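Quick start: what a row looks like.
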Amino acid sequence: MSPGPDLAQVQDPVYPKTMSHALTIHDLDSISHKHLALETLAQITRIERKTFPASEAFDFSDPSLWRRRPNTYVLYATLAGDADIAASASTSTATAVSTIAKGPKRISSTATAPSPAAATVIAYALYVRQRGTALLHKLCVAEPFRGQGVGRQLLTHVIGQQRSQRSGRGCLAVQLWVDEKREAARRLYGSCGFVEVEVVEDYYGPGRKGLRMVLGLEGDGG
């Protein structure tokens, strides 16, 4: 199943209600352990299903998203401290070793530490690169973290990736579709330089207009 023209939804307004969190933003395919990747996808799936109606929800349960589908990128954000703890646990090979003297022999037993748990996902994004354009299909923040600048940080990171890769991979623009009534999302995108270029009636269903927004990177020196 390839990503369709899903709503790139963000609940964060232009001006956060509280100070922004310090985040760590990860690329899903940078996870080295399969069980951590699948646990991360499961977390994203739960947020997706709580946020979007079934007709607009993307299937993040597909394990192939971990070892990247062609030109498909999944990013996720965690709180900086949470990410540091998880990273430390994932690289640790700590074992508990006990040596018991018993007559002339010594008996050793080794207990391997439990597998590390994935850090808690608080936001995620999915985009596909096609013909020099990054198509942003998903940008979503978990409900407890909305209105706190998380969506802005993740969107800024996505845009920064396209700028840094532009010379080598030819990305000239970022494009997305958003429901006309998602005013907070539209404000956020507009504040980051996106321009509304097209309106499609009934894009998300009867009476729900879709707006195509584009951020041009060609000639941008950033």
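That is the whole record. Helices lie at 34-51, 80-91, 150-169, 183-191. The first strand starts at residue 23 and ends at 27.
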